[in-house]
């Protein structure tokens, strides 16, 4: 079970459909024309608790020991060594400093390693112990609040939470991009996709629910409502396999282009889905997972010039960049960090939303509905999940909060 730190009720720190709604793009144009500096959300008591959770060793140990995660970042840094060597890098949320140090090893001239958690104190010691103090500058503070004296060529960050958006760290990367990234700069990772699939998982359901039907020969079905609530009210972080998936292809709930995304796009994300079951099997819930890609800034095919990240574009350039990012084709060289059930396991595992009552599906039966993810008003680090699903003429809604 993943524990990225204490301080939250489940013991973990709180870790648009394709294309951008027209209204948002228009309002962003307005922002670009005004050339206003990005504004930061105030630091709340919840944020302080969140940063405090990251001062504990356990969460960093778990992340660093996740070789899929850490090894993929290291490989991506080496792949882009030509864009890092001699350049200035900003590591947003440096933790122990591991990614900042990889960048220094790759030849960065200077790395600003920023973290609002007191883990930055250890990062500073680690930098000294590795004789990198002349290159890596550790800063204790929110990236929204620290003062970096120069613009940067590269932003690197490990910001992904469960279900991609949990923890709400991506707005801090957007802030840093708009404030400090030079035109044509590199963002690692550059793209992310959140996926969704219907799952069948009889063993898991039985373990939590059917157990109560016969306990040492005693009928305890009266416990069932409590058992369902306790087991399935909140999203579960678990590992499933490809065999649990009821249908392929998957639905892409959301695609993120870190070069162009704006904060407003993250406030509420809705995706509609329509699956056809491949099997006769009970539908127990839905699984979510993500992957991130490490792509360089897009090359414009017309003039072979680097395209600028959104924070530094004129409105025309920006719309050109957005449409091209939609046509992005994954090359064989693209490094991908995947948290999919069929890939090597990571500490993110998969996020499962179980239904209180399974639905018996026949092969080819349609399951359709929508999922909406919104930042919680109670605590911006939490994620509200509104799930609608219909099958066989019956419709349901499930509301849950990832705390
Ligand atoms: C998932 S950890 C990654 C740590 C490290 N980069 C690594 O890969 O091992 C995210 C870190 O970002 C920090 N963080 C989150 N939001 C931040 C912000 N706005 N400003 C500074 N640090 C932040 C957290 O305190 C935490 O240490």
From TrEMBL:
This is Probable protein arginine N-methyltransferase 6.2 isoform X1. PANTHER family: PROTEIN ARGININE N-METHYLTRANSFERASE, PROTEIN ARGININE N-METHYLTRANSFERASE 6. One of its GO terms (biological process) is methylation. Keywords: Methyltransferase, S-adenosyl-L-methionine, Transferase. Residues 310-324 have a biased composition (Low complexity). InterPro entries: Arg_MeTrfase, PRMT_dom, SAM-dependent_MTases_sf. PROSITE patterns: SAM_MT_PRMT (PS51678).
